[in-house]
Structures are given as structure tokens and as C-alpha cells.
Amino acid sequence: MLYYTCITGGYDFIKAPLKINDDIDYICFSDQKIPASYPWKIINTSDLEISEGFDEKTINRAIKICPQKFGLLEQYELTIYIDGSIEIIDDLSLLIDFVAKQDDVIFMYDHFLRNCLYDEAEECLLIGYDWYWNIRKQVRNYRQKGFPVFIWPL
Questions:
Q1: Which residues contact 113 (CB under 8 A, 6 or more apart)?
Q2: Burial per residue of 57-77, b for 16 or more beta-carbon CB atoms within 10 angstroms, e otherwise
Q3: I want to staple 2 with a disulfide (CB 3.0 to 4.6 A). Which of 57, 76, 120, 146 is the partner?
Q4: 86-91: which pairs have CB atoms within 8 A and are 24 or more residues apart?
């Protein structure tokens, strides 16, 4: 079992969990020299093949979304990504037990404002989250594949 995070570009700071579960490994991928903060094991992204040709934002997203594509974390049966801005304040054993009993392969929290991928893409364009054409190309791909307008009720 693993909790992992990725901090690049000096955007966030590693936060030690308030409650540490000794049955869980904790890994932080980062492009910064971060002093090892127990229980986190720090892995520098420059040591990974993924870092070649990608900017810090893309490296962060790739590690978050598809670490298996880069041969990372393969030894773990269950991994939980924790955003760098999040502090673990309690033992997540109940969440782990729930997830481990499910047939699904990915779990996410509902977005607190939007329930539509296309609305989220518009917001990403407004705040400049990525290049305009990158977002438009991806949205066009989703539409062509028939991705639904609303995913879940708010």
C-alpha cells in the first residue's frame, strides 16, 4: 500500500501526515531538493526517464495520473495519490478498506463546483491552466469518442 504525491516547480511543500500508518509507504516525487521528512521517501524527478522533454507541470500530471506508464509504483497493489497541497490528518484505513473491496480501478472525489468535463475545460481555459490548443484538442477528442456532458449529479 502506498500514498504518493508529486511536488514540482516550488508550488507546494511536503507535509508530514499527522497520523502515520506503518503498514503504508509514503513517496514524494519532486524536482526540488527536499529534506526527507518522515515518513516520506523523496524521489527526484530528474532521476526518472519521464523528466526528459517535459516541463514541471507535465511531469507532475504524468506522475499523478499514470505512474504505471513510466514504470513507477508497479510493486504496489493499491496506491493513493495525495495532492501536494493536502495534509493527511487521520488514518485512512477505512478508505483503504473500502477501496480494496471494490471492483473499480480508479476512485475520485466529486468536484465541488462542476459536474461536466466540458464546463471544467472552459474553466481551465479561463484560468490558463494549460495551452489553449492542448485543451481544445483534448476536448475535441472526448466529444468524438462520445464522452457524456454530465458525469454525475451535483
A1: none
A2: eebbebbbeebeeeebbeebe
A3: 76
A4: 86/5, 86/15, 87/15, 87/17, 87/18, 88/3, 88/15, 88/17, 88/18, 88/19, 89/17, 89/18, 89/19, 90/18, 90/19, 91/19, 91/21
d(CA 112, CA 60): 22
β-pairing, 25-30 vs 40-44, is parallel
The type of residue at 104 is D
Contact 54, 29 (CB under 8 A): no
Alpha helices in 7-131 (DSSP H): 56-65, 93-100, 117-127
Q: Under a CB-based contact definition with an 8 Å cutoff, are residues 80 and 6 in contact?
A: no
Over residues 30-71, the pLDDT tens digits come to: 988 887 778 999 998 888 877 677 888 888 888 988 888 777
List, for residues 61-119, the tens digit of each pLDDT value. 889 888 887 778 889 988 889 888 888 898 888 888 888 888 888 777 777 888 899 99
Is pTM beyond 0.85? Reply is no
